[in-house]
Known about the structure:
Blueprint (H helix, E strand, L loop, with lengths): L2 H7 L2 H25 L5 E3 L6 E3 L4 H11 L6 H13 L7 H19 L5 H9 L7 H12 L10
Antiparallel strand pairs: 1-2
Helix pairs in contact: 1-7, 2-3, 2-5, 2-6, 2-7, 3-5, 5-6
Amino acid sequence: MTPRELFFQLGADRRRQVHLSLCQDALTTWVAYAGAARSPLRYRDSVVGMRHRVDVELPADALRSACAGVDLADIATRYLEPITALQDDDLTFPDPVEFAYYAIYNCFRKYVVGEDISEWLIVNQALSAHDDAEAASRLTRTIDEIGPAASGNGDR
């Protein structure tokens, strides 16, 4: 059975646990990138030309909120500008960092805001924050860590 098939055999609560675990792993990619910066991360938006400082704590705060199921730190508002900047190409990150950023953002949107975000999108983005060759084994290992009770749909 493929890791994708294993994932979709999990009940909703176990899929959520996998998402949170994968996003926690993806957060390490973000933290390493932000921590390696020699100066504050900044960008200029192309619409009005304002300079902005990247809120490096935002992904960690968003993941804490996703785990709690509530917006603990005005995450929805704090994401507005950087997500727009990413979509407008005013803000760019290396691909693995951008995937980590989006995985955590989408996890927050799904489990806090209640948006209909594809479950597989979050998995793919979180796994893409790491070496592609490890994706299948990373997902399988995460599913296994959730535990054998994770199979089936009895844990909605």
